[in-house]
Amino acid sequence: MRPEPRSRDETLALRRRLVGSSCKLFFSNDPVKIVKAKGQYMYDENGRQYLDCINNVAHVGHCHPAIVKAAHEQSQLLNTNSRYLHDNLVDYAERLSKTLPGKLCTFYFLNSGSEANDLALRLARQYTKHEDVIVLDHAYHGHLTSLIDISPYKFRNLEGQKEWVHVAPVPDTYRGIYREDHEDSVTAYANEVKNIIEQAQKRGRKIAAFFAESLPSVGGQIIPPAGYFQKAAEHVRKAGGIFIADEIQVGFGRVGKHFWAFQLQGEDFVPDIVTMGKPIGNGHPIACVATTTEIAEAFAATGVEYFNTFGGNPVSCAIGLAVLDVIEKEHLQAHATEVGNFLTELLKEQKMKHPIIGDVRGSGLFIGVDLIKDQAERTPATAEAEYLVTRLKEEYILLSTDGPGRNVLKFKPPMCFNKEDARFVVGTIDKLLTGSTNKNCLKECCCWTALKSMLSLRFRGAKRAKDGRH
After folding, report:
1. 325 vs 62, 65, 83, CA distance in Å?
2. DSSP string spanning 230-291?
3. How far is CA 308 from CA 96, 117, 287, 291, in A?
4. How far is C-alpha 88 from the geometric centre of its chain's CA atoms?
5. Which of 82, 269, 300, 312 has fewest C-beta within 10 Å?
6. Does 441 score more than 90 pLDDT?
């Protein structure tokens, strides 16, 4: 262990030299060095406190003492693979099963959301004996090759769309092809899925799965209209496929009203597979796939063992159990509803005040604020959104953007985020937008931000050339 911590500049220089440049930093022109965190707050090397509105991974709060205690105590006893009997594994599976519909009763444990989604894809193909997958536009399901192939957010910038991948329009009623004024957007979006299936079948293709985030996150914090999944699943199942709900971003009570975001669609909707990750371990690498007995048995029928070295180990399961305990004991699902509704109302008040806010949407502590240049065309205010999150960072609030236009402010903070935090962040947004409007400088500020970014990149390029690094 180093006797003295590195300076921020030294850490940044070493990162740039030693870590792949495709591994991006938040606020890359002026990154924050975080050295500790607690609850919904993070602290830099100078002890300055930042409100974390980004981190849905630290689900019940950074460094929650119950999670730390569970990890420490089990680490002192045993950590090994799941080929040995251990109570933690079956206790955890049993606890998870009680949160899900009855038919989702078989579990596989893994280490990351990407691993979970890759396994879900394998399960679907083995069960259906089909290959093709339908995904939503702008979706992101993970970084493995198999998942890049079903993630339009990624593959459009790489090798393009594979023949076995079919992209359905995201069911976005604000800026999608069927909007809030459409007489039946649910049926219209589901019929797009039906049309995709029919066109694929004409080419001799067979659908294995419809793969969807229960609430599209990278796509712009989208809330699909209730009933859409039921109708889309009906078309997919009729074609011999199954429905996979990706809950990696939004599960475990974040949406408030329900424990799982797919339940927002209604009690009559049950996926065939649910994948979990990120918040499941509060920062510890755990993931899970839940499915039906029939799908699991079809997978086992190959005779090929599924083994994951660290998946379902005693420490991971102890941590997973502790996360469930904290959600229950601290009433975090109800808290997400109460605080999320409060935050949403504050943001909607700002929408009435600032024309740049086109839409406020969400459920619980999963909220998106869509920034626009004009009300008629709803043109994404990309530069303005970047400027705003940069200025918020200077006010010690960490917030990020997403969506195809990078113009949606996305709120998915630790679940202990409270009303005081909500007042602070919305009050700061109001101050920044009011100040920019009064001085008529938002556009100029955005141009200056872009210019600084360009100059910074040129400076770093010139420095590398001077130092002999190419």
Report:
1. 16, 12, 26
2. HHHHHHHHHTT-EEEEE-TTTTTTTTSSSSSGGGGG-TT---SEEEE-GGGGBTB--EEEEE
3. 19, 14, 11, 17
4. 27
5. 300
6. no
